[in-house]
Amino acid sequence: MSKDKIENVVIIGSGPAGWTAAIYAARAQLDPLVFEGAPSREMIPGGQLMFTTEVENYPGFAEGVDGQTLMMTMRSQAERFDTRIVTEDIVEVDASQRPFRLRSSEGKEVRARTVIVATGARANWLGLENEERLAQTGGGVSACAVCDGALPAFREQVLAVVGGGDSAMEEATYLTKFAREVVIIHRRDAFRASPIMAQRALDDPKIRVEWNTEVTEVLGDDFVTGVRLRDTQTGAERELEVGGLFLAIGHTPNTGFLQGVVELDETGYVLTPTPWRTATSVKGIFAAGDVMDSYYRQAVTAAGTGCMAALEAERYLAHGTEADRGVEVPAEPVATSGNR
């Protein structure tokens, strides 16, 4: 990475979307530069799969694969094609001129003709100490029922789902395929979910609801054994034995550094004006993975959009104007419609 060099493509993020984009860009001889992120309390290079012990729904692994192994394999594949990697965050993107100017958490400045944002989204947690520890060690605490619910450890167990929105209803309903019983823990006396989703959960004989209740402690050493509950009206506390805990209280996209740069929706996800494309509201900036996908949030769909973003960046560079090749001119925003 040279101070005077103008990068063809800078990829921000190192989950399935980021590494897939890097593999495609490198094989297209675009010499990609990846900022994989710096380790923090909330995120580490490799994304959320680094906290997942067993991945059984990623194609190509008949016996499943450890999440960390999967991400390190993707990283190695990108390196095989000479992808350059910097273990820092990007904290600022200046899209007011071409080439784009990016600044890293360590003060590095990079100029780029195209940028692929693949910073993902982080699950919202309750903020309890043992919750975080068990989530990171594969101890039965998860923020994705579709990812983890079918694992043998959760079969025929009593599983708890925290939340009251549509996501919580979907998670609980999905878990009934494997659990002996699913307990929805909700701190209010009514769900926020849409009526049809709420009724579907309430009508399921394997689901029951703990109303006006919140989790104050997650119990268990190597694996979750239960939760301590508090009644939000009376303050009374009690314990509930469970064999798994699933958090369904939302996700927060990692887009703080993009405020005012590209168009975001009301919850912070990157908007892509043209459906089934990864181009953002600024020409030359593309988005892939969970940072632009609040619906699927799966490793395989993230990888797919990483491929799409790299292909779009390659075609943009091949057919762009002089500005796209690094001539210093004001950036031209794309008209947006609000569609994703």
Annotate the secondary structure layout.
Elements: E1 6-12, H1 16-27, E2 33-35, H2 67-80, E3 84-86, E4 90-94, E5 100-104, E6 109-117, E7 121-123, H3 129-136, E8 141-142, H4 145-148, E9 158-162, H5 166-175, E10 181-185, H6 195-203, E11 207-210, E12 213-219, E13 226-231, E14 237-241, E15 244-247, E16 251-253, E17 285-287, H7 299-319
Parallel strand pairs: 1-2, 1-6, 2-3, 6-17, 8-15, 9-10, 9-15, 10-11
Antiparallel strand pairs: 4-5, 5-6, 7-16, 12-13, 13-14
Helix pairs in contact: 1-2, 1-7, 5-6
Please characterize this protein's 3D structure.
This protein is α/β, with parallel strands linked by helices and about 350 residues long. The protein folds into two domains: about 190 residues, FAD/NAD(P)-binding domain (3-Layer(bba) Sandwich); about 120 residues, FAD/NAD(P)-binding domain (3-Layer(bba) Sandwich). It contains seven helices and 17 strands. The strands form four sheets. Strands 1, 2, 3, 4, 5, 6 and 17 form a seven-stranded mixed β-sheet that branches. Strands 8-15-9-10-11 form a five-stranded parallel β-sheet. Helix 1 runs parallel beside helix 2, helix 1 runs parallel beside helix 7 and helix 5 runs parallel beside helix 6. The longest helix is centred in the C-terminal third of the chain and has 21 residues. The protein starts with 5 loop residues before the first strand and ends in a 21-residue tail after the last helix. The C terminus is likely disordered.
